[in-house]
From TrEMBL:
Keyword Oxidoreductase (UniProt): yes
Species of provenance: Candidatus Ghiorseimicrobium undicola
Enzyme nomenclature, EC number: 1.4.1.21
Gene assigned in the entry: nadX
Purpose of the protein: Specifically catalyzes the NAD or NADP-dependent dehydrogenation of L-aspartate to iminoaspartate.
SUPFAM superfamilies registered for this protein in UniProt: Glyceraldehyde-3-phosphate dehydrogenase-like, C-terminal domain (SSF55347), NAD(P)-binding Rossmann-fold domains (SSF51735)
Keywords in alphabetical order: NAD, NADP, Oxidoreductase, Pyridine nucleotide biosynthesis
Protein name (Swiss-Prot/TrEMBL): L-aspartate dehydrogenase
Domain Aspartate/homoserine dehydrogenase NAD-binding: 10-120
Pfam families according to UniProt: Asp_DH_C, NAD_binding_3
A GO biological process held by the record: NAD+ biosynthetic process
Residue span(s) of domain Aspartate dehydrogenase: 159-247
Length: 261
């Protein structure tokens, strides 16, 4: 069977971990063929580390060479990566989910063209329950996120005690914290949308880990889930669970046995 050709956009902490997993864990089913990054140095460094025969190229060439595209770059380009992949009928996995929150027409395009778009659960738990509960009437979806000050943009460096830095809907949360709150976007897409999904972000220098509490109420029952995440070894602003979630999603793509909703 011919191996699935994978291209990765973004060679930072997340992209590098996913690339290593493709080369190590999925080599029977797939091969990494292309890398793309705004920093040519980052792409070259990752290629050297992987010791893989991959092409370093721009986005269009990467999509052309790939069967399956993985975006691990930025909310600033994730919508473009998805749209271009769909137009070329390439399956695509997206890490920067926040970039698609205001571009749901792209997902409609994917459905019309019958192209698979994958959104890993990221740094939260309970998404399977939310998807099931969405078939009944959902009354409330709330995300309470606790973040160490050092994981936030520099403007919050002066926080000395536990402080609520945001309380509103998911759309505004993603707008104000585009690099820090992708979990709000994935909850919105799976549930009641960005306007009705409530988000509270609390910061403190005493917090050592990112923690996400998800509360869901519907006619089918109530779910409360909590994830306390260890930072990625490569980037303290990224939860290790988010990286593992992407790799687990890839495993599900290749495995004939699908577990979970």
């Amino acid at each position: 069977m011919e191996k699935l050709k994978i291209g990765i956009v973004g060679c930072g902490a997340i992209g590098a971990r996913i690339a290593a997993a493709v080369c190590r864990d999925f080599k029977k089913n797939a091969r990494l063929v292309a890398l793309s990054d705004i920093s040519r140095t980052a792409a070259k460094s990752l290629k050297k580390k992987l010791k893989a025969d991959v092409v370093l190229c721009g986005l269009d060439e990467l999509i052309e060479k790939s069967d399956f595209v993985i975006e691990a770059a930025s909310v600033n380009i994730s919508a473009m990566v998805v749209k271009k992949s769909i137009l070329k009928r390439r399956s695509v996995l997206i890490m920067s989910v926040g970039g698609l929150l205001n571009r749901t027409g792209i997902l409609s395009l994917a459905r019309r063209r019958k192209v698979s778009v994958y959104f890993p659960s990221g740094a939260i738990c309970g998404l399977d329950g939310l998807k099931a509960m969405a078939l009944a009437k959902i009354k409330k979806v709330t995300l309470i996120t606790r973040k160490p000050v050092k994981s936030l943009p520099g403007r919050f460096a002066g926080i000395k005690k536990e402080t609520v830095i945001f309380n509103g809907n998911a759309r505004d949360a993603v707008k104000n914290f585009p690099q820090n709150i992708n979990v709000a976007a994935i909850l919105s897409l799976a549930g009641v949308g960005p306007e009705k999904t409530r988000v509270c972000i609390i910061a403190s220098p005493k917090f050592k880990r990112n923690a996400h509490t998800v509360e869901i109420e519907s006619n089918a029952g109530k779910i409360i889930s909590q994830a306390e995440n260890v930072p990625s070894p490569d980037n303290p602003r990224t939860s290790y669970l988010a990286v593992l979630s992407a790799i687990a999603t890839l495993r599900q793509v290749f495995d004939s046995v699908k577990i979970g909703t």
